[in-house]
Amino acid sequence: MDRAPHPRPIRLRRRFARLTSAFATIALGATGLVALGGTAEGAAANLAQNPGFESGLSGWTCSAGSGTTVASPVHSGSAALKATPAGSDNARCAQTVAVKPNSSYTLSAWVQGSYVYLGASGTGTTDVSTWTPSATGWQQLSTSFSTGASTTSVTVYTHGWYGQPAYHADDISLTGPGGDPGDPVPGAPGGLKAGAVTSSSVDLSWSPVTGATGYNVYRDGSKVQSVGGTSATVTGLAPSTSYQFQVTATNAAGESPRSAAVTGTTSAGGGGGGGTVPKHAVTGYWQNFNNGAAVQKLRDVQDQYDIIAVAFADATGTPGAVDFTLDPAVGYGSEQQFKDDIKAKQAAGKSVVISIGGQNGTVSINDSASANNFANSVYALMREYGFDGVDIDLENGLNATYMTQALRSLSAKAGSGLVITMAPQTIDMQSTSNAYFQTALNIKDILTVVNMQYYNSGSMLGCDGKVYSQGSVDFLTALACIQLEGGLSPSQVGLGLPASTRGAGSGYVSPTVVNNALDCLARGTNCGSFKPSRTYPGLRGAMTWSTNWDATAGNAWSNAVGPKVHGLP
């Protein structure tokens, strides 16, 4: 395959095509002729705007701010696209193009890099894509498609692959009959300002853009809202946390480049899900069974724990429904004593939640009926025992659609004080497309914290695309970065580790390693080889399995990690 750049002929062809089109327009206008069919020149015209990225990213929108233009390498001209995937983003750069119904089109692009894709969606027939696993030099990708009977626009795109290095693209071409482009894509908004704030919201305003029919609002690189006017209130934020905001202008022709960014910082106190959970919190699982760890009553749980997850609720014969039975092995003389201990912990400022699942959990929520059963039964347990909320620890998978429905239904019943925690495995949070991650993002406005289990795990990708093995600071920080950059607020991210070597099959690290990871993420200090691009002082904290194994080891874990968490900025 010929991978030579050939810059001069392509530039000449571009200029010749523009001149030919201009002369044809003048000739038709002067003679009053009407073009009844596409000419050879018209069919070869490139419908893509800014196909060689000579005008920066004008006309293109890249996911999560992943795209930029570079002067080298280029296939022709003076610029090319460089887009960099992340652990939870494939660096998709797209453009919407006007086309005609029932017509044939050819799409091509020159690319460099690993796992580079080119495709078209919204065709009205069969959407298409093609890719290369590795292009060390410029390689042309090409595909073709036909439009449906009512299709007037398609989206053409390139993207890389999650965690892979940056890719390059240039000279993107879409040929075929051109449609009515309508209004041009609007320009980027100016004058973006952050206004009034609360503990959970930030007001934004900006200047109007000519030709815009709406605006999209981005928070920390992710689109969170679409509005018709020149102001918006972004809600569901964490207290005392700084966020970066940008806006774009939209119309039928597409979306503008993003505006310059502004920073807004929420005020202290309240906001979001989480009831009275402190800004920085330690979560511990309390075992409602005896497996050789120290047997505890709730009153015995170390004071460093802010959230105590009672493990576990039991599945019932009704799909989605759960119940709870106090195990006689933990030593309570009555259920009332257990309930009194819950009240005492709450009086001391702690939250006590009921955990659903565990390694052997069999609860399944996979339709609306089971989602309703789940919400009703958990709420019944909250009312009976006084639990503050629920922990989702389903290690055999979940359905994002119906778990979201279940938790929103529970929230509607329990109110704003509901505490929702989650404890997914590492594989569940590698990508925003995973069901656990989707669920967390779906309920972000009512979610308290995700304490991923950084143990009993194989090697995993970090947000920099590198592979890390459990047992190190880098494993904790590089994987946490995926959640922090993938849409969760820092206040919704915690580090879950075993309290002792007996608390898990593998993955135990000393409290010093946990504390170094907390410092790295919150302060940018004590990092390993991986150092995040920014700090997350609002990081919620840490979790351990379990308070019982912690007690067995003399509370060494909570005595070391607790003060570190509570001393975070």
Automatic annotation (TrEMBL):
An example Gene Ontology molecular-function term: hydrolase activity
Signal peptide coordinates: 1-29
SUPFAM superfamilies reported for this sequence: (Trans)glycosidases, Fibronectin type III, Galactose-binding domain-like
Start and end residues of each Fibronectin type-III domain: 188-269
UniProt keyword annotation of Magnesium present: no
Coiled coil is among the record's keywords: no
Entry EC no(s): 3.2.1.14
PROSITE patterns registered for this protein in UniProt: FN3 (PS50853), GH18_1 (PS01095), GH18_2 (PS51910)
Domain GH18 residue range list: 280-569
Keywords, comma-separated and alphabetical: Carbohydrate metabolism, Glycosidase, Hydrolase, Polysaccharide degradation, Signal
InterPro entries: CenC_carb-bd (IPR003305), Chitinase_II/V-like_cat (IPR011583), FN3_dom (IPR003961), FN3_sf (IPR036116), Galactose-bd-like_sf (IPR008979), GH (IPR017853), Glyco_hydro18_cat (IPR001223), Glyco_hydro_18_chit_AS (IPR001579)
Entry-linked Gene3D superfamilies: Galactose-binding domain-like, Glycosidases, Immunoglobulins
UniProt xrefs under PANTHER family: ENDOCHITINASE
Record-stated family: Belongs to the glycosyl hydrolase 18 family. Chitinase class II subfamily.
Protein name as it appears in the record: chitinase
Upper classification of the organism: Bacteria, Bacillati, Actinomycetota, Actinomycetes, Kitasatosporales
